[in-house]
Write a structure and sequence with these properties.
By secondary structure, this protein is of the alpha/beta class. Helices cover about 40% and strands about 20% of the residues. Helix 2 packs across helix 12, helix 2 packs across helix 13 and helix 9 crosses helix 10. The longest helix is centred in the N-terminal third of the chain and has 20 residues. The termini are far apart. The relative contact order is 0.14.
């Protein structure tokens, strides 16, 4: 994006580009806009992440339109709140395509919301870029699906690979693991990957049980007590935001102290949940998709987050946007670049461009592989440490409270082991 060019651009280029953009925007005003439709979780338990993704998408919309739009037309986002309910999703996509006549559609945030959209999208033959869906396309095998999530080809295993790799490196090596997961699509997929990783790294699974996801489960103490009774060396949990928070709180209250604790706990990346849990996060080893470390500052990254954070308060969203803000922007940045490459909004041509292209984005380079997943993984494992009750936005803004412990290429610190040493 032009606004995110590095500051070394010469003034003459900036002026010329500004004139060209103004002319392009004026030209595009007289034509019907390209409509990009989607559902998004703007209320309910997924909304802290859904709303930050939406702000990233709106920033892209504003910038692309100031640059003259796409194919000489302005772009218009058309979206509806799915209320964090999978049951709302099929009707929204039917309305977007049949009533709103959206030219293109993308997904909202999360596996559980993407999966119910797939039958509608497939039936209509639409290209579909999913945002943080875990191996959604495994059962559909839809050739026009593409995933914005850095899981690579080992999709299900990627969320807990770092957890098990770090555990296997300890001396003496821990031997047993307990698994708990919500009985919902994401958690089932992530826990399937955890089982595979346990086998791969030589751990014996001694407890492996699902629980009904919220709102069916509101008391997490019995789950934690069962994990405590199993007395495994490692405890890995695969959960969505409400149950992630509930299990971490219940673990602190019950004094759960395995040698390592964490897994695929969605939600802990969001500022609102970090503020809620604070020191209870210490010692937990969890997955991450991006952190504000210098190794992960790509062309345009800092400029994007500066703009996001300047707008966040007025939008009433996560103040930092580290978990979904950047990826929401990238979802449409990749789509826009594919449209430019295809010189068309025809779904088949756009899908072909997505398959063939390598995309430079504010969150790094993306190349799609089999099933529309990334050709290479960039998932991480981080460990939280030294968090006090005084932790605030400035704490979460940087890296002082978390170490990237895996993969080696992105590592910023060593794991604190056992878990009890990091608990404060």
């Amino acid at each position: 994006m032009l606004r995110f060019l590095k500051s070394g651009a010469v003034a003459g280029l900036a002026v010329a580009a500004g004139v060209a953009m103004a002319a392009g925007a004026a030209n595009a005003q007289g034509k019907e806009p390209i409509k990009i439709g989607f559902a998004q979780s703007l209320t309910g338990p997924l909304s802290p992440n859904g709303k930050q993704a939406l702000l990233g998408m709106k920033i892209w919309e504003d910038q692309i339109n100031k640059e003259g739009g796409l194919l000489g037309r302005q772009v218009k986002l058309v979206y509806y709140d799915d209320k964090s309910s999978p049951a709302e999703v099929p009707g929204i996509y039917t309305k977007l395509l049949d009533v709103d006549k959206a030219d293109l559609v993308v997904s909202g945030y999360a596996t559980n919301q993407i999966a119910p959209a797939m039958p509608v999208v497939i039936r209509k033959g639409k290209t579909f870029i999913g945002l943080f869906g875990l191996d959604v396309n495994d059962k559909f095998k839809y050739p026009k699906y593409f995933a914005i999530i850095p899981t690579g080809q080992d999709t299900k295993g990627s969320f807990t690979e770092g957890f098990f790799a770090a555990a296997a490196a300890q001396k003496p090596k821990p031997q047993t693991v307990s698994l708990a997961y919500a009985d919902a699509e994401f958690s089932q997929n992530a826990c399937e990957g955890a089982r595979a990783n346990a086998k791969k790294y030589g751990f014996k699974v001694v407890y492996d049980k699902a629980y009904p996801p919220p709102p069916k489960t509101t008391d997490f103490a019995p789950i934690v007590q069962a994990l405590k009774a199993a007395n495994a060396d490692l405890v890995a949990v695969c959960a969505y935001p409400l149950d992630s928070v509930g299990i971490v709180q219940a673990a602190a209250e019950a004094g759960l102290k395995p040698k390592m604790f964490g897994g695929a706990l969605v939600g802990l990346q969001a500022t609102v949940f970090k503020d809620k849990l604070k020191g209870k996060l210490n010692g937990i080893v969890n997955y991450e998709t991006w952190v504000p470390d210098k190794k992960q500052m790509y062309d345009g990254t800092e400029a994007f987050f500066k703009e996001y954070q300047a707008r966040a308060k007025a939008e009433g969203v996560d103040a930092l946007g580290y978990y979904l803000g950047g990826w929401g922007y990238v979802q449409l940045q990749v789509l826009g670049d594919a449209i430019k490459a295809a010189k068309s909004i025809d779904d088949n041509k756009v899908a072909d461009a997505l398959r063939k292209g390598t995309f430079k984005t504010v969150m790094g380079q993306i190349k799609f592989g089999k099933k529309g997943e990334w050709a290479e993984s960039r998932m991480m494992a981080v460990q939280y440490h030294d968090i006090t009750d005084k932790a605030d936005l400035e704490t979460w803004r940087g890296m002082s409270y978390q170490n990237v412990i895996w993969p080696p290429s992105l590592k910023t610190g060593d794991v604190i082991y056992p878990y009890e040493k990091a608990v404060k």
